[in-house]
Fold each of these.
Amino acid sequence: MDDTERTIAIIVAAGGGTRAGGAVPKQFRRVGDRALVAHAYHAFAGHSSIDEVLIVVSPGMEGATRQAIGTEIATVVGGATRRESVAHGLAAAAARRATRVLIHDAARPFVPGRVISAVLDALREHKGALPALPVADTLARGDGELGEVVSRDGLWRVQTPQAFRLDAIVVAHAAWPADEEATDDAQMVRRLGGSVALVQGDPVLDKVTYPSDFALAEARASATLRTRTATGFDVHRLEDGEELWLGGVLVPHPQGLSGHSDADVALHALTDALLGTIAAGDIGTHFPPSDPRWRGAESGQFLRHAADLIRAQGGEIDFVDLTIICEAPKIGPHRAAMTVRIAELLSLPAERVSVKATTTERLGFTGRGEGIAAQAVATVRVPA
Ligand code: MG
């Protein structure tokens, strides 16, 4: 997370997509478990460096897009050409005070977290950055008959997402001649003398354009990710003179949990469950209690770190489920606030976070009010 930056991803989904065949625009065709446009949306929404995702849609397609993605989203109505659509997206990003934008085609459903990180990192030194792959095939001119073979030395296949400093891309769009079409945005920045970095692209970023591409996309959707589930468990002691932090929320209670950090037992169990899905040890491995940095630390940062590790591997968090075990306080009145806070920490929609509570019928240490226990289960999908 870079607190001085505000980063907005703009997904351009306003095209008709007629070359792909089919009755619905291709961005709404299902690939794997979701619509094409939803794959890219979740890749950006799930990345810790992205603050907001805007989807540029054709007029009247706002509702269909929201339904395809399955969560509340921000849409911007596009224009007659790709370039106009991007300009509308940029205006909306500027109004939302973005400092950096990523511009991405909805027809590229699979966006590795590594590529998002790489293009954003390159903006420290450049006005723009894009993923690209070297051309592997022989290139030739021809018109029904083989013409001259073109050297592929120094030639690259340019992909998206393309990342830009907002000010640079806004100026470049405004300066581009009205009668000249541009197939991508980076060339506009380059024409004004702004440097655009090439970073390592990925074959999974290839565009889904023709009917046959859908079969490959379908295979990628099912083969590239494996579901993993893991559990976490934690206990902390209740003591006088402590604040009670539970599920990321300060709960009014005569006693609080004691421990080296803020002792949020619920966030600790969730953190361990998430770390477990990628076999990355436990909370003590990453934040040893012997380290004075974590004295009184807010446990939300432990949870965020676990989520970042999963996403750094190209993984996605599907669902987390938490059970808090105590006699008191009553969790019900705080459940909604905990759900919202955990969803925010994990950059997940709230419907993918479950918070439950139970007592132990006054039995055992939880029943006697000596401590609070929490258990959690996390389900993620990570690259196979
Ligand atoms: Mg703990």
Note: The two ends are 26 Å apart (CA to CA).
Amino acid sequence: MILVTGGAGFIGANFVIDWLAATGEPVVNLDKLTYAGNPENLASLANNARYIFVKGDICERALVDALLTRHHPRAIAHFAAESHVDRSIHGPAEFIRTNIEGTFTLLEAARAYWNTLTGEQRDDFRFLHVSTDEVYGSLGPHDPPFAETNPQQPNSPYAASKAASDHLVRAWHHTYGLPVLTTNCSNNYGPFQFPEKLIPLVIANALAGKPLPIYGDGMNVRDWLYVGDHCAAIRAVLNAGQVGETYNIGGWNEMPNLTIVKTICALLDEMKPDPAGRYERLITFVADRPGHDRRYAIDARKIERELGWRPAETFATGIRKTVRWYLEHQDWVAHVQSGAYREWLARNYGARQ
Ligand code: NAD
Ligand code: DAU
């Protein structure tokens, strides 16, 4: 079996569901259930004997030790993190704690556990660290996309905390021989993404007739990957990645934010027309994110060449599926839009008008 951390969040939940469907191998999911963690994401596994949920914090060493001893996983897939850049600007402390101290705690627990293993079990054990393209910093308009060999130049507290965790993972391999793998992926979108991130926020706001906030001039560029493709890439790395290596994962799909928002508006015009007019009328330019990285782009040739992974979805197919999912799961959106979510909106957007 494998131990997943952060499996009740957006990518983690998609990963656990896809993993069980693709492999049938049991999963223990350790998740603290912060505002971003939602057991409802895994409701489809309620009667699945191969799925075990444990509510807990990756910073609690005794808990992690006990889980490793009890369940004896062959791998750890580490997703748990504070993940939203704007929140890291308003309050970086939790990012330092979970992303850096939490990863350190997991690495130490994994090292102690791995040292108890022998033979094939020791050879086959893997610690897979799920990281981000944001660790590489920001690209100019004509720079080549990020390769695994690019220097890390993180610019936000979130990116810095993820870069620090990448460095810890690297050092635990180099110094102690822990069999690690690291993935650095671009922007994901798809089902179960918390509506603080651009795509689900725009869908939710549009359906509520609220402004669609665009930071700055809307020309910041991201590379977008459908979450199911990210999950498939992680499975490929876990199964066949070279120990100690880093793999960049991306969709070859760079787009400015304004294009993303207009695409969503056009899909909503088609799937759920608003009698008040076209959704684009709601687009509102607001004050920029401090230190806003201008462009991310991923060179994914290494994972394609070495592991044969390629994205199955184009942006056109993935975004259509995603908009449809949010239209069909408005209850899910309503549940996560709790009091705490509304406080966040007031805090982040109140000052941007
Ligand atoms: P998310 O914020 O949706 O989910 C994070 C999950 O981690 C939540 O379930 C939360 O409860 C859990 N968690 C937080 N702190 C914890 C702690 N101390 N102990 C245990 N659980 C804890 O995040 P996401 O978007 O699903 O991202 C998952 C991972 O993928 C993160 O490591 C992120 O850096 C990375 N990543 C995300 C993207 C993206 O576009 N979302 C892209 C590349 C990489
Ligand atoms: O690149 C990978 C990263 O992608 C992940 O590591 C992060 O966990 C994930 O949150 C994401 O970071 P971004 O900052 O790129 O994602 P976000 O959805 O917050 O913003 C996408 C772009 O849209 C970014 O340029 C900021 C802009 N934006 C965002 C929001 C929330 C807006 O213009 N308006 C908004 O209201």
Note: Residues 93-114 form the longest helix (22 residues).
